[in-house]
């Protein structure tokens, strides 16, 4: 399969624009570290939200989602909880506000506001840097596998998928290194505009080509039902037997347990706050805590509707027009190739070039975000802190360039070792994030948690995430989650209780500045002795109500575009009603009560 000349011209024209933006912002980004990594904390919150949303609209994730909805139908609306998508709700409601109040540059630097500068804090600082780099490497490998498979289907040269991935990642690295966060955000906004427009066009094509009756002829009973019981209740026998093998491999036959595990895992991970990556960087780049919360709230609206319009449209087209070819492959089906095949077969020349440019842009957005944040840890938290604290801004920027190149090379090397998008996705969102959840949750809500507990909890989690797949190779990653969780919980609590608590002055300063709710009574009493006018944060009940409302609201935003494309009118109106009701409740109980 190869693109027409017009499509290739559109794609390469877009590449030229991104290089121009990188060159244009080079001078502005090289002003100092704050400008290079945080855009000077002077960009509008809605621009940062679009940038963050663009980074979520990646090729690898879209390939995975198309394969999920192809296999599971409307029950696929629950699978985004694997990430979990609703971590944006926790950040919107309260965590973005808490995090932005710290006024730091990276997640590792934030450690000093919570654990100070003692030996426990130094260990915590180093383990956060290690986790950040491992997670960034994981995401770069995830993107590497997806983009290689995607590009190979279209481009005319006889190169391997890995070779194409190396070319794409190297090109992306060029404009990121040149322009820092300014170029990342500028290209993100351009990319998101392209993706949104093309998503609506593709949805129109799918709805025009596929009548509901045509879809019913190629799907099994239960495919169009979003609700579920204890069992999955979906059988592809006689239609495409290889899909049943995929369901067994995913470990989703007992679907009720699978969804409950996703929800349990997702709540813990979301309550821990963002991982030290581009999401945290965008929050820290906002002008105020209020803007940080509004940025996270807008993410859910602007990314979910266009992305799932595209996912649903390509899934429907593949089901109706591509099933025979897939069935002919027997058990040798790579479900991650459904997206590029559907694009190639059903999108007209010209629009195909725009769409592929947009998807490649989304890939570059994901890569650029991670490539911009990882050097911040290497330069700000390692080189500046331990080796050369008094260097000039020019020196730090030069080391940022070098660090970006190093991160790029390591990500490419890891990509060669990963077999599929699904395998690395499952590992990142379950094993790796399970190791992160407990210590990062305790740091917000429990005063007695200290730097040593954080270090041992993170170390146990990181080691468990890396070695659990080797120790339990036959286990689906999500069922490894409770084991990793218990290991990190024991290490976190044991490490804290076996060592002295943090200094009172440090805890009081953190509590005054961040103002969290949770188990902070001893610290609150000491703060009150110094400042009788101080009032504790009593918003726990309201925040949890808003979180629950937000999760339902977000689920409706996922279902709405899918039901629109499959033309399921009764369920579409129900989903719209849920979204409007939840929007009103969030307006009254969250937006109207945001601090100024």
Shape: globular
> Which class of secondary structure composition applies to the elements?
mainly alpha
The percent of residues in helical segments reads over 70%
The low-pLDDT segments are: 29-40
Task: Report the count of strand segments.
Answer: 0
The CATH homologous superfamily of the domain at 5-418 is termed: Sodium/glucose cotransporter
CATH architecture of the domain at 5-418: Up-down Bundle
CATH class of the domain at 5-418: Mainly Alpha
Structural write-up:
This protein is mainly alpha-helical and 596 residues long. The protein has a domain of 414 residues: Sodium/glucose cotransporter (Up-down Bundle). The chain is built from 24 helices and no strands. α8 packs parallel to α15. The longest helix has 49 residues. About 2% of the residues have low confidence.
How would you briefly describe this protein structure?
The chain is mostly helical and 596 residues long.
Descriptive key words:
596 residues, mainly alpha, Sodium/glucose cotransporter, 75% helix
């Amino acid at each position: 399969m190869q693109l027409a000349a017009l499509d290739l011209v559109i794609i390469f024209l877009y590449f030229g624009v991104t290089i121009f933006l990188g060159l244009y912002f080079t001078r502005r980004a090289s002003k100092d570290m704050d400008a290079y990594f945080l855009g000077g904390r002077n960009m509008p919150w809605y621009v940062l939200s679009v940038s963050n949303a663009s980074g979520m609209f990646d090729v690898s994730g879209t390939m995975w989602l198309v394969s999920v909805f192809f296999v599971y139908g409307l029950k696929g609306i629950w699978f985004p909880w694997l990430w979990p998508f609703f971590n944006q709700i926790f950040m919107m409601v309260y965590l973005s506000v808490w995090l932005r109040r710290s006024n730091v540059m990276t997640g590792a630097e934030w450690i000093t506001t919570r654990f100070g500068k003692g030996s426990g804090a130094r260990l915590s600082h180093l383990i956060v840097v290690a986790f950040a780099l491992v997670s960034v490497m994981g995401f770069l490998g995830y993107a590497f596998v997806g983009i290689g498979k995607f590009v190979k289907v279209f481009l005319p040269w006889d190169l391997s998928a890995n070779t194409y991935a190396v070319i794409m990642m190297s090109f992306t690295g060029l404009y990121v290194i040149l322009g820092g966060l300014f170029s990342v955000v500028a290209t993100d906004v351009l990319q998101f505009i392209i993706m949104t427009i093309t998503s609506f066009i593709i949805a129109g094509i799918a709805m025009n080509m596929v009548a509901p009756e045509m879809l019913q002829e190629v799907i099994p009973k239960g495919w169009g039902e979003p609700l579920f019981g204890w069992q999955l209740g979906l059988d592809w026998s006689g239609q495409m037997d290889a899909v049943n093998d995929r369901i067994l491999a995913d470990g989703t036959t007992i679907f009720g347990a699978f969804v409950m595990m996703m929800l349990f895992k997702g709540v813990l991970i979301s309550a821990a706050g963002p991982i030290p990556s581009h999401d945290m960087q965008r929050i820290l780049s906002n002008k105020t805590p209020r803007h940080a919360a509004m940025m996270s709230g807008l993410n859910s609206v602007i990314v979910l509707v266009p992305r799932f319009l595209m996912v649903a449209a390509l899934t429907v087209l593949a089901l109706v027009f591509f099933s025979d070819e897939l069935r002919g492959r027997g058990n040798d089906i790579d479900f991650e190739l459904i997206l590029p095949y559907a694009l190639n077969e059903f999108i007209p020349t010209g629009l195909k070039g725009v769409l592929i440019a947009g998807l490649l842009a989304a890939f570059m957005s994901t890569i650029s975000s991670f490539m911009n944040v990882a050097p911040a840890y290497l330069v700000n938290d390692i080189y500046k802190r331990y080796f050369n604290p008094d260097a000039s801004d020019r020196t730090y920027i030069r080391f940022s360039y070098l660090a970006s190149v190093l991160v790029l090379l390591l990500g490419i090397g890891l990509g060669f070792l990963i077999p599929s998008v699904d395998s690395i996705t499952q590992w990142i969102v379950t094993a790796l994030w399970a190791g992160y959840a407990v210590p990062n949750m305790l740091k917000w809500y429990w005063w007695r948690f200290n730097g040593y507990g954080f270090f041992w909890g993170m170390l146990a989690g990181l080691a468990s995430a890396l070695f659990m797949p080797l120790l339990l190779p036959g286990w689906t990653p999500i069922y490894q989650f409770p084991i990793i969780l218990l290991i990190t919980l024991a290490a976190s609590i044991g490490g804290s209780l076996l060592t002295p608590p943090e200094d009172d002055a440090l805890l009081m300063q953190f509590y005054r500045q961040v103002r969290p709710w949770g188990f902070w009574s001893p610290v609150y009493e000491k703060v009150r002795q110094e400042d009788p006018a101080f009032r504790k944060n009593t918003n726990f009940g309201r925040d949890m109500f808003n979180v629950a409302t937000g999760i339902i609201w977000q689920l409706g935003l996922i279902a709405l575009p899918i039901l629109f494309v499959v033309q399921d009118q009764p369920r579409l109106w129900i989903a719209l009603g849920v979204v409007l009701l939840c929007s009103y409740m969030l307006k009254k109980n969250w937006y109207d009560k945001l601090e100024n």
